[in-house]
UniProtKB/TrEMBL annotation, chain A:
One of its GO terms (biological process) is transmembrane transport. The chain crosses the membrane at residues 42-68, 103-125, 137-156, 183-205, 241-263, 288-307. PANTHER family: BLR7065 PROTEIN (PTHR43005), INTEGRAL MEMBRANE SUGAR TRANSPORT PROTEIN (PTHR43005:SF2). It is found in: Cell membrane. GO terms for cellular component: plasma membrane. PROSITE patterns: ABC_TM1. Belongs to the binding-protein-dependent transport system permease family. Residues 98-308 form the ABC transmembrane type-1 domain. It comes from the Bacteria. This is ABC transporter permease.
TrEMBL record, chain B:
GO terms for biological process: transmembrane transport. PROSITE patterns: ABC_TM1. Keywords: Cell membrane, Membrane, Transmembrane, Transmembrane helix, Transport. This is Sugar ABC transporter permease. It comes from Planobispora takensis.
């Protein structure tokens, strides 16, 4: 780096005298201002770090500590119980079965990524009303989660919109979309696809649009059809983005909370891991056990992230 | 402008469109039909649940009781009585005010905190720099919902529980994505720009305030959009930290419709639409910025 030559825009021409070379400046700065120089970055980092430590690291460390105790969250003291909480999590099947619900969301996430890829590809080629379709597909992502919860509570009511539409399509009957334990997770995972498809789609669309147009032109000259363009140009270019989306999807479906909590209160089969943890902590005052559950979730998510970093080498192709 | 297949709608696009028609017969046409069919189907799936709520919000409770079905049209398209009820009884004015205060303070704070941290990390070399960067990095991996159990204790001990400061502080403290957006952008500002100012005798603070911050405007726009959407839509933090009746935000006030309005779907629908309309307005006005902002914010 040669900062001298290009840096003179704001400096009058006469000021570019030899004593303003970086070396000269450095020697001038030495001595008294050396200590201040070293402090300057910390001045800027003071507030950000204070927030980071208070609201990220103190809770994480506390959580790890509490996970080895029997604390109830209110009494002034607690006893260390070793790994008892962890043993309880792994041996009481009802505490672990909530992960079954995650599988529905995971399957839904796979569907969501496939659909997003399809619509992004379709809309990246010439299409009438392109911006309208893009806007419609994307908009649900921006909607308030509680509003979405209510929209679909109404949608899935017995004899409600969904049943009516199914009736029009010739599939009769009224269903307890949110009450039947066999159906509830399908319904809720469907809402999740409805809500998050738009984000995936817009990310993929952005990725496709950053592919050099010459690639398509060259492929077309070589006689490649749409499918081949998709298979050999679009998919490889999007690979890092798809990897990133997959990891977000996995950690996302492990920490599903909002939609089931708003819509069913996390009752019965719709209970997720996070809802269970929150209930343990705030309703049953089992802070120790809840902390251990949160630590388990954290470890799983870190593991998944680490695996993804190993499997998909960092390609900074993403703009 | 991203020059992609969508961007080159001019010359190149025309050629591409002309080709299948000229060469291929019905298979290409069938593909086109299927394409539009799938797009229309997806649009119906997105719009139908929202449209039905809009219809219901315009009906009277008698109309709903009559049982015309959710797809029936309201008798009076200008019946806004439910909106008045929802707005007044749902304390929506207070909710809008609380949300607005929280939005303004936490967005402003995020911009300053994020840009200051990014400035320090990118423009200075200092001891423990690697550790500091690693600390920010690791924190992004921890899903904040998992630590709520103990974050609650911290907020409580700071005496912030049931104050507007609780969500504000949490939004400020957990936004590491903003730091990354700023960091990426600061890297693209040549160091020579601030070196020149330093030569003129400007302090680091002046350089940050007078040079870096103004140059960061596009990144600030991104952060404002990403953060604004996140804060407006957040439910859990205000729900957990501000249960006070007078401290409702848009999300939590709407959530409280569940109790008193019971099965009064006409009122709940009106409240839901009231919450969605501002989002729709912002989206229609700032479409392009929102797309760009989210693409940048999420690819971190």
């Amino acid at each position: 780096m040669t900062p001298t030559s290009s840096s003179l825009r704001r400096v009058p021409a006469g000021a570019a005298t030899p004593q303003d070379t970086p070396q000269a400046r450095r020697s001038r700065r030495k001595g008294s201002s050396r200590g201040r120089q070293a402090l300057t970055p910390w001045l800027f980092l003071l507030v950000p770090l204070a927030f980071l430590v208070t609201f990220s690291y103190v809770p994480i460390i506390n959580m790890i500590v509490y996970s080895f105790t029997d604390w109830d969250g209110v009494s002034p003291d607690y006893a260390f119980t070793g790994v008892e909480n962890y043993v309880e999590i792994f041996t009481r099947p009802e505490l672990f079965k909530v992960f079954v619900a995650s599988l529905y969301y995971l399957a839904a996430a796979g569907l969501q990524i496939a659909l997003a890829l399809y619509f992004a590809t379709v809309l990246s080629f010439n299409t009438r009303f392109r911006n309208l379709f893009k806007g419609i597909l994307f908009f649900p992502y921006l909607i308030n989660g509680v509003a979405i919860g209510f929209v679909f509570l109404y949608f899935f009511q017995e004899g409600g919109t969904f049943d009516t539409v199914l009736g029009l399509l010739g599939v009769g009957g009224e269903h307890l979309w949110l009450g039947d334990p066999d159906l509830v997770n399908f319904s809720l995972a469907g809402v999740s696809v409805w809500r998050f498809l738009g984000l995936n789609f817009v990310l993929f669309l952005g990725g496709i649009q950053s592919i050099a147009p010459e690639l398509y032109e060259a492929a077309e000259l070589d006689g490649a059809g749409r499918w081949q363009q998709f298979r050999f140009i679009i998919v490889p270019s999007l690979r890092p983005l798809i990897g990133l989306t997959a990891i977000l999807a996995i950690s996302g479906c492990l920490s599903v909370f909002e939609i089931p909590y708003i819509m069913t209160g996390g009752a019965g089969a719709s209970e997720t891991f996070v809802i269970q943890t929150v209930k343990l902590a705030f309703r049953f005052n089992k802070t120790g056990l809840a902390s251990a559950a949160a630590v388990v979730l954290l470890i799983i998510i870190l593991l998944v992230t680490w695996l993804q970093r190993r499997l998909v080498p960092e390609e900074r192709a993403v703009a | 402008m991203p020059a992609g297949p969508g961007g080159v709608r001019g010359a190149g696009g025309k050629g591409r469109r002309a080709r299948p028609v000229a060469r291929a017969g019905w298979p290409a046409r069938l593909a086109t039909v299927l394409k539009y069919l799938s797009l229309v189907a997806a649009s119906v799936v997105v719009l139908l649940p929202l449209g039905v709520v809009l219809l219901t919000s315009l009906k009277t409770s008698d109309e709903l009781a009559r049982g015309g079905g959710p797809l029936s049209m309201p008798d009076d398209w200008l019946n806004f009585a439910n909106y008045v009820t929802a707005f007044e009884k749902g304390q929506m004015a207070e909710a809008a005010f609380n949300t607005f205060v929280i939005l303004i303070v936490s967005i402003t704070g995020t911009v300053f905190i994020g840009s200051a941290a990014a400035y320090a990390i990118d423009r200075f070399s200092f001891r423990f720099k690697k550790l500091v960067v690693a600390m920010f990095l690791f924190a992004t991996l921890v899903p904040s919902i998992t630590t709520q159990v103990t974050t609650f204790q911290v907020v409580n001990q700071l005496g912030l529980f049931n104050t507007r400061l609780a969500p504000i502080m949490l939004y400020l403290g957990t936004d590491i994505v903003a730091i990354y957006i700023f960091l990426q952008f600061i890297r693209s500002i040549p160091v020579s720009v601030d070196e020149a100012a330093r030569m003129d005798g400007a302090s680091a603070l002046t350089v940050y305030w007078k040079i870096i911050l103004p140059l960061l405007k596009p990144a600030i726009a991104t952060v404002v959009i990403v953060k604004g959407i996140a804060v407006y839509n957040d439910f859990y933090i205000p729900f957990l930290y501000m249960p006070d009746q007078n401290l409702g935000t848009v999300s939590t006030s709407l959530f409280r419709f569940k109790g008193p309005f019971g099965a009064h779907w006409e009122n709940i629908s009106a409240g839901t639409i009231l919450v969605i309309v501002p989002t729709l307005a912002i989206f229609l006005m700032l479409q392009r910025f929102i797309y760009n902002g989210l693409t940048q914010g999420a690819a971190k």
